[in-house]
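From the methods appendix. Each design record in this collection lists the tokenized structure first, followed by the designed amino acid sequence. Records were kept in a plain field format so they could be parsed without special tools. The example shown here is representative of the layout used throughout.

RECORD:
FOLD TOKENS (417 positions):
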């Protein structure tokens, strides 16, 4: 190590090495499953992005990018500034590298931001068939077929079909609630898109425009958009009026300055004549001094007027910048709101698909006859690397992975689809 290295540069180097070490330790703290695990739809990720700025010798926290995100049905991850990124089939380390490289390329940064990506919650697994409580469940590491059945309450009990009927009623009720929420989120997304496009009206998406509940939702979202736009318009008008007043003030100050300059010229001519008379002894020196004092005062006023004009011009620049900031902040808020709505809509859409499956399963599965012993079969439906589903005959000790669908049936039951 060069011992003659400048102390400040040495300190910055140590800070940089320490920061890189901290970020490495944070990333390596993930479990082995999260490191080697291939991400998929509905996985929730916790992302933290920091940047070591070599010139300033300090860290920059990308708080606008950091946060918790859910991989959508398309397998993409949507982040501010990074945009849509393919996440399905990739590891957390690959996602972290993509985020850092994209931010560096997009903003032309000399130092690449470092991203820490961890699985906050694995995508759920699903269980259906002749069990007590079919449905969607949170995934936990080391999950097996037997554990999954235990989580779902075990095999279906009772032979009167009451449980199946209750499951059907519950699934239909949940489906109705989720359908209403999906409509609301779709209309909210349409309103945000209209605002971002600068439109004054909200158009209902074509696929839901004919539904009875949609016009009322459109009216509510239109009222929200009108209120937001009115607020922004009033603030921009106030800034424009302020600019107008300042511009008028600059004109008035300029006119006063010109008047003062003419008065100074007249006073100087007068001083020239008085000075000649004073040299001949016809005028006392006090009058000369008085005239010179008046000229100095008028020149001071001219300087004050020019200073006031500069202040007014600075205020105009501030008003213009504030107007730009208002528009940018509004667009940024809308982008964040849209991202949140899209995430919620993706989650609701997935839940709706699950509820449809539960309705079909609850309506088509017959209970086993009382007192009969039936063999039980397990089938895991799992997607391969190409996104195609395949059926795997499973045993009780076989591992269940995130996103798997476990189908349980007693031999002799109708085939579970």
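DESIGN:
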């Amino acid at each position: 190590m060069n011992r003659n290295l400048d102390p400040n540069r040495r300190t910055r180097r140590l800070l940089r090495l320490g920061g890189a070490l901290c970020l490495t330790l944070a990333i390596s703290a993930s479990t082995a499953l999260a490191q080697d695990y291939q991400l998929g739809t509905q996985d929730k990720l916790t992302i933290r992005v920091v940047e070591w700025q070599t010139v300033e010798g300090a860290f920059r926290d990308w708080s606008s990018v950091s946060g918790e995100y859910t991989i959508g049905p398309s397998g993409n991850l949507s982040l501010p500034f990074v945009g849509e990124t393919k996440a399905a089939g990739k590891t957390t380390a690959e996602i972290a590298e993509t985020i850092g490289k994209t931010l560096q390329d997009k903003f032309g940064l000399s130092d690449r931001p470092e991203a820490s990506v961890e699985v906050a919650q694995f995508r759920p697994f699903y269980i259906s068939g002749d069990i007590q409580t079919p449905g969607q469940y949170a995934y936990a590491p080391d999950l097996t077929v037997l554990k999954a059945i235990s989580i779902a309450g075990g095999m279906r009990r009772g032979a009167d079909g009451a449980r199946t009927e209750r499951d059907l009623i519950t699934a239909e009720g949940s489906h109705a609630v989720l359908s209403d929420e999906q409509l609301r989120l779709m209309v909210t997304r349409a309103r945000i898109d209209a605002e971002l496009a600068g439109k004054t009206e909200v158009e209902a998406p074509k696929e839901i425009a004919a539904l009875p509940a949609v016009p009322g939702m459109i009216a509510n979202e239109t009222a929200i958009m009108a209120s937001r736009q009115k607020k922004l318009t009033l603030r921009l008008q106030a800034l424009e009026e302020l600019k107008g007043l300042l511009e008028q003030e600059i004109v008035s100050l300029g006119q006063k300055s010109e008047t003062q300059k003419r008065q100074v010229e007249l006073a100087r001519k007068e001083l020239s004549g008085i000075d000649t008379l004073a040299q001949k002894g016809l005028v006392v020196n006090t009058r000369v001094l008085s005239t010179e004092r008046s000229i100095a005062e008028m020149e001071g006023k001219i300087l004050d007027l020019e200073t006031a004009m500069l202040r007014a011009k600075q205020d105009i620049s501030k008003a213009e910048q504030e107007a730009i900031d208002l528009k940018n902040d509004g667009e940024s808020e809308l982008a964040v709101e849209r991202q949140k709505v899209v995430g919620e809509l993706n989650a609701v859409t997935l839940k709706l698909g699950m509820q449809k499956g539960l309705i079909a399963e609850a309506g088509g599965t017959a209970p086993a006859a009382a007192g009969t012993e039936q063999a039980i079969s397990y089938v895991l439906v799992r997607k391969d690397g190409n996104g195609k589903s395949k059926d795997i005959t499973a045993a009780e000790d076989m591992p269940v992975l995130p996103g798997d669908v476990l189908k349980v049936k007693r031999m002799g039951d109708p085939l579970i689809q």
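APPENDIX NOTE: Residues 162-365 form a domain with the Helix Hairpins fold (CATH 1.10.287).
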